[in-house]
Specification:
Its EC number is 2.8.1.7. This protein is of the alpha/beta class and 413 residues long. Helices cover 40% and strands 16% of the residues. 4'-deoxy-4'-aminopyridoxal-5'-phosphate binds next to helix 4.
Amino acid sequence: MMTTTSTIPFDIERIRADFPILDQEINGRKLVYFDNAATTQKPIPVIEALMNYYRGYNANIHRGIHTLAEKATADFEASRRAVRDFLNAPSAEEIIFTSGTTMSINLVAQTYGRHFLKEGDEIIISGLEHHSNIVPWQMLAGEKGLTIRAIPVLENGELDLYTFEGMLSERTKIVAVNHASNSLGTVNPVKEIIAKAHAAGAVVLIDGAQASSHLDIDVQDLDADFYALSAHKIYGPTGLGVLYGKRALLEAMPPYMGGGEMIKEVTFEKTTYNDLPYKFEAGTPNIADVVALKAAIDYITKIGKPNIAAYEHQLLQYATEQIGQMDGIRLIGQAKEKISVLSFVLEGVHHQDIGIILDQQGIAVRTGHHCTQPVMDRFCILGTTRASFAMYNTMEEIDKLVAGLQRVKKLMA
Ligand code: PMP
């Protein structure tokens, strides 16, 4: 088994030391955390940013003129600029803070979708979508008489782009697909998908929940109309997300929620709405978590996304080789381009049993349908065991997973 660390493009021990949660025992064994696609752990600078905010300058933003309010506002807006740079968005006004990818997608469905789509229009999603990029469109479609169509998934877990082209027509108004699949790891060729959708006159939303911690994102190069992500999947806090939208679209869309902050003037007769991005940020936002998101982005940027991606690729390759060659293992999703997600089934063993036995050995993996039931249906399975890797994982931990799976096989034989 491989234990060399010579090709790691950064100091893995220093990185691990930044994530205090990793240094603990679960069921008497050192924790191996392989549930990073569900949520990533938080480095000390993120935890400290949260603490510093609450200890030092908690105040409501934008409205106050006292010193604490000004500092809180400055840090909140600095984080918005950090997100702009992270996505290479043209301007900070096109960055809207939400509660997560789920809210970002619902916002687009309920504002752009509700306002601009009419009966008979079509929305194209894909067979690889998370439920949060299916259900919001279904809710809208049910109300407005829209049709939802899904791009089929090929046997290797890639999207069938040939069929996609044939699905596009003048009825297609929205195309909503993920940049990377959370259950199979497939990286979708979103630049190509966007170009084809645009040629048919549709706007495109990209669900970047999984891609954002692994791939360099450039919304201008992609020409994405909307791009959604969650802070907790990029080493930031939970309950916070981002919606990037092109200015012209955001300006044309009605607001999502009404309340304080999103208005210019309110009388009982009429309300005028605030400028971007505040039009979409009603109420007191998640200030502390927004402030801490900048610490997460700074952390990733310092290590460098290409370095992180290169290392995660090594982890994925090694895990794919080691686990793929085990008797009775069927890998689900073998796309040519993948983020570091390995999904598999073990013949004759329920995925929940695998999860429980691995947990007894201190190994945290995800089991089930991963909020992608249509993917499971496509492969005629109930669920998978999913190991997903982050920058702080090691080859030695993958060896432990392999040993853990061997134990599962022995116990369940
Ligand atoms: N899309 C994808 C591809 C995801 O992996 C997830 C989270 N598992 C979501 C959307 C939803 O993200 P959140 O729960 O943070 O809103």
